[in-house]
TrEMBL record:
Chief site of localization: mitochondrion
Gene: CMC1
Cellular localization per UniProt: Mitochondrion
A Gene Ontology cellular-component term: mitochondrion
Family that this chain belongs to: Belongs to the CMC family.
Protein name (database record): COX assembly mitochondrial protein
PROSITE patterns according to UniProt: CHCH
Keyword Cell cycle: no
Lineage: Eukaryota, Metazoa, Chordata, Craniata, Vertebrata
InterPro entries, per database record: Cyt_c_biogenesis_Cmc1-like
PANTHER family: COX ASSEMBLY MITOCHONDRIAL PROTEIN, COX ASSEMBLY MITOCHONDRIAL PROTEIN HOMOLOG
Keyword line: Disulfide bond, Mitochondrion
Amino acid sequence: MESVCSTAEEPKLRHVEKDILIPKIMKDKAKELCSEQVKDFTKCCKDTGFLMVIKCQKENKLLKECLTGYYRDPAFYEECKAEYLKTREEHRAAQGVPHQKHSTST
């Protein structure tokens, strides 16, 4: 019974969840939060074409700083982790409902 309580408090994350799925949420949210820098960098790249590597260094630097600030923020990681765990729990509950109905009718 104790393992159920500790699992509810501190859910175990698989490798793919920790290293791929949660960082993907972080990346998507950080892009939204840095939307102004993303917009400026995108505009610069479109306007300059092949010279974007040279001409868009300032915009690229500002975008990287903004994104990196979020990626390195432990509170932001925990926020994205909580969002992922909530979604995972909802998904598991939705899958569990039909399965439980099937097993109770047997």
